[in-house]
Amino acid sequence: MPHPSDHDARADTRIDSPADKATGATGPTAAPQGPESGSASTSTRVSPVDERGETAERPGDSFVQSFARGLAVIRAFDAQRPSQTLSEVAAAAGLTRAAARRILLTLQTLGYVVADGRQFRLTAKILDLGFAYLTSMPIWNLAEPVMEHLVAQVHESCSASVLDRTDIVYVLRVPTQKIIAINLATGSRLPAFCTSMGRVLLAGLDDAKLDTLLEASELKQRTPRTVTDPAELKRIIAQVREQNWAIVDQELEVGLISLSAPIRDRQGRIIAAMNVSGNAQRSTAKQMIRDFLPPLQAAAQRVSAMVALRG
Fold first, then answer.
1. CB-based contacts of 239: which residues, under 8 Å, 6+ apart?
2. Mapping DSSP to helix (H, G, I), strand (E, B) and coil, where does residue 214 land?
3. What is the DSSP letter of 116?
4. Is the pLDDT at 35 greater than 60, yes or no?
5. How many alpha carbons lie under 13 Å from residue 148 in its C-beta half-sphere?
6. From the CB of residue 294, how many other CB atoms can be counted at a distance below 10 Å?
7. What Å distances lie between residue 259 and 37, 96, 248, 262, 307, CA to CA?
8. Phi and psi torsions of 180, nearest 5°
9. Rounded CA gap, 279 and 69, in Å?
10. Are 270 and 200 in contact (CB under 8 A)?
11. pLDDT tens readout for residues 257-292
């Protein structure tokens, strides 16, 4: 708010469906990919239909394929490729050049894309789409001063996130002046299975949904400490569900320890997670639990109370 491929070559030999002819796009869907490694916002090349590596359903006439392809073009831009040619955008989104051109020109007319010679890039107006989510949930405006107070208490960074399939998405972050191992901002994505906020959020799911998400997750070894065995992850998440908090000690990145607590709605359902993150050179996991867990839980409970009052 994370390369051109040979999609164009394959698209030239594909027989167009009636829906493709209606939209002018003939490209195949891109191969599913899992979350990428990295401390910045992670995004992947996705097809207009098959997003986040899941098999997308086509609900007949209710599915607006051209709109889905427009979103794929927007998602083709990322930190590694902020400026791209028409061919690069078409390849990344799994579209023909003609279809990508029409979408890019539409976005340019609306002010979401600007062209500089042969290069296209997003404009700041694209932030309106992401901030529409944040402004639709005013609870985060109320939560920010609570998190700022927590940071002043513990002198470590504090963040809040929500679950989006196999990822957590950062919706609010209050950093400290200290340099930590990971630099994250609102809209950043990280895999849920190896983050403390992710495990808190996964603990709010029933067993069937948890199994589905773990099966869909790319259980990648991020550090020597990363737990990737599904059975062990389910045991850990069950413990998180019972104790109502989670800690991850250098499983996401070496040197990074994160402690999280749930934010609940008035029905008691987990809707978000709040964390305190620190450096292993300053505090051990045991020290963080001892010193930071009580104020973190108190802050999460205050935000939960705000949610209940507004709910």
1. none
2. helix
3. E
4. no
5. 6
6. 11
7. 21, 46, 7, 11, 21
8. -115, 180
9. 41
10. yes
11. 999 999 999 999 999 999 999 999 888 999 999 999
